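User: Batch of two.

Assistant: Item 1 of 2:
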Amino acid sequence: MRDRALTIEVSDEATTSPHLRHARVQDEDGRGLLIVAPLAGRWGARCTPDGKVTWVEEALDSDEQPIPVGG
């Protein structure tokens, strides 16, 4: 938690940037960001030497307006 916001991070070894997409029924991945992004105040990703970290952030102050997704 930082500055009245909860940040959740997930890392993986892929080097591709995350993007919102509708996974097909047979896909084994690709659903997480589509589920989480509408609920989060902000989301993004950063590259690491081992892949990438995707993060979502939600304000903890109920009076604060959420920042648009992807912003």
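Item 2 of 2:
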Amino acid sequence: MKAQSVYIHIPFCQQICHYCDFTKFFYDEKLATEYIEALSNEVDTQVHGTKNRVNTIFIGGGTPTALNMEQLRSLLQLIDDKFDVAHCIEFTIEANPGDFDEDKIKLLRAFGVNRISLGVQVFDDAMLEELGRLHKVKDVYRSIDLLQQNGFGNISLDLIYALPKQTVEHFRRSLNEAVAFNLPHYSTYALQIEPKTVFYQRYKKGKLHRPPQEEEVEMYAILKDTMRSKGIQQYEISNFAKPGYESRHNQVYWNNEHYYGFGAGAHGYLPGERTGNIRPLPAYIKKAKEDGHPVLNTEAIGIREMVEEEMFLGLRRMEGINTNQFYEKFGFPYEKLYKERIAYLINKGWLEENGENIQLTDQGVLFGNDVFEQFLLEEDDLMLVR
């Protein structure tokens, strides 16, 4: 095994959300069956043997629970055959409220899924419709109740803020309704206007207006304060959890560790390379069935890229980057490359030293992109550590 984590992409949705730029397609029963067959061949080609040990598995989308029972069973059986689910620490599937019933929940439990990531987004029916979501607020209550009744305690709830027409007070009410569930994990993101989305087209035409930046900053401050008051700790820029419920899979990304990526448009990170799969569904299915290698592009990852990504991704975590761990990984202290830049960022009030760690300050989080830009390297920079 080249990686200890697995991401599997299921691109089907009953409806396409207006903000989403992930690889997604309207659900079609015949096409979905063909997709699972192609996916099976890709996984079987890339990972040899059966019952391979992995630490985390994440089924994302799209909407994986849009699959019918037979397709979902086939997908879960594929995973169970190929990976040692019994010893997997965290097995997550994304789901939409109202998109599954008790039979699907029991099927997930039977195949070892132990964490649900629920795409709620906002507690307002009119705003959900504006986002292109199919569910209503009542579906959130029904779905969480159904999951908990069937033994799922590890539930993560996704929220989006800085939505069109959303006020600070509206966000506060939506957030308070979310935390009232007292769930162990919350992921909360500011809306991004991405190309090739409905929202992007509206934005270009001047028909989509987000809240002013100062209101977005206020919403983020309310988010952090509210979570803190409920004992839900911020452990990454956009993620909050009760102790022990931090997402193990997402930490693989932030720790710059290796993972497989299977499915249309999926990305993987293996030693020395990042891969990106073919996105168009017919092309992915054809190639995956032909040779099990539906990769569109491969990017070589050398020491420069590894160090840059270590800094970008590691600083997303509230604990930041540990001096000793960096040295163990690369064989030199990060000050060799970044001493002056770190001093500059500390002087700006965007970074701080905390024992053996460097981490973003509250102000630094707001200027994250400007901070990360400071850690880009030129090839000549590596001469300092050679």
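The chain has a mean pLDDT of 94.
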